[in-house]
Structures are given as structure tokens and as C-alpha cells.
Write a structure and sequence with these properties.
The chain has 240 residues and is an alpha/beta fold. It contains seven helices and twelve strands. The protein has one domain (2-239): Purple Acid Phosphatase, chain A, domain 2. Helix content is 34%, strand content 24%.
Length: 240
Amino acid sequence: MRTVILGDIHLGSPLCRARLLRRVLEEVPMDRLVLNGDIFDDVNFRRFNADHWGVLQAVRALGERIEVVWIRGNHDGPAQMLEPLLGVKVHDDYTFRHRGEAVFVTHGDAYDEIQRSSRQFRHLRRHLHGLVIWFDVPRKTAIQLAQRASSVFARAAERVKRRAMADGMKRGARWVVAGHTHRREEDEEDGMGFFNPSSWLTPHPAFVLFDDAESTPRLVVLDGQRLTLMGGAGLGRKGG
């Protein structure tokens, strides 16, 4: 059983690496695909180009022969709209088993205090999120580093991680996979593994692979231009 988990695709954004993602969906062997939230940048489908529609077509094709799970993110819109679009059930979170142990997958926006606060702060957060996406362009490496070094951003991302892991512990999970923060991370603490593959707006998008033929899951990082494995970050390292 091979499970691929990816999220924060943001279809509709001009920075979405949809062409590379379509190749992943069509060429990487998998038995289960988990889409971990923010598949859309927003629900304005007029922003989609041919590559973005191609991703949706590839997901629908996969859904005809393997299990496809969609976890709703804060950008995705209501479940009653999403389910007919791809013909898959939309979940708030999802748990499955890998080599006999539980894996808890959550987008992570439920743990984000700013996301859950008043309309005024949500409006501010949308603008800040737009800046983060805009700055996450390869040619603007210095701005990327400044954004990632932001103490506010770091604290928010760490809070999402801690709360996701705490929720996973309550559910008896051995591994937790979260998204939302666009901070790539692979870590293990007190016997619990944690993954965040970051987004498909970055120079090197990634996915998490749970393969029953392998003793441990891993973060698969791709070259931003080709379907080429760059290798996963080591345990405890952050980046992307």
C-alpha cells in the first residue's frame, strides 16, 4: 500500500506548480491519495488555466481506480460544493493505518488562532497570506528568508504543529501530517513523527510517502522544474 499525501496546492494561483503536480499524479505509483487542504487558492475558477484544470482531471481519473481523500482547507470553500466537483468525499481530517500504526492527517487551520479570530483579523490574515505567497518566488530569495525568519510566522507555525501533534496523540497516532503554514518540516519527538510538506507554490514542492514496503515514511522533495527526486530533509530539519 502506497499513500501519497500532499496539500496547499492553491490551484488558481499563478505561482502554483500545476504542471509538475499533474506529472506526479500521473506517474508516481500510489494506492491512496490524500489531498490535505487548500487545493484551491479560492473558488474563483476563472483564475484556472489549462494546467490547473489538468490537475483536477488527473485527480478525477485517479479516483476511478484508487482511494482519493480530500481534507477541506480554509481556502477550499464548503464541502457541498467540493464533493461533486471531484466526486470524492470531503473530510475535516483523516486517519489511516501504516504498518499497523495510525497516521493522523489534518490541514491545520483549526489550530491557527488568527484564522479562528474575528473577521477583522481574518481579513488582515488574507492580506498577509497573499504577501507570503507573493514573496515565495525563487528570484526573491532574500525576502523569502526574511519572511521565514519572522518571529510571528515562526510562532504561529510552531503552534499549529504542537496542536496537531497533541490532537494526534489523543487519537493514538504514530505519525501526524499537517499543512496550512507552508513550512516544510520533518521531525520526530517522543516517538511521534511529524511531517509538513509545505506548498506547491515553492521552488521545490514535496509530498509525504507512506509505503508499506518501507520501514518508515519519508518526505519526497522534487525539483521545481522536473519530476526529479531531490531527497527528503533529515529528521529535525526545517525548510522549503
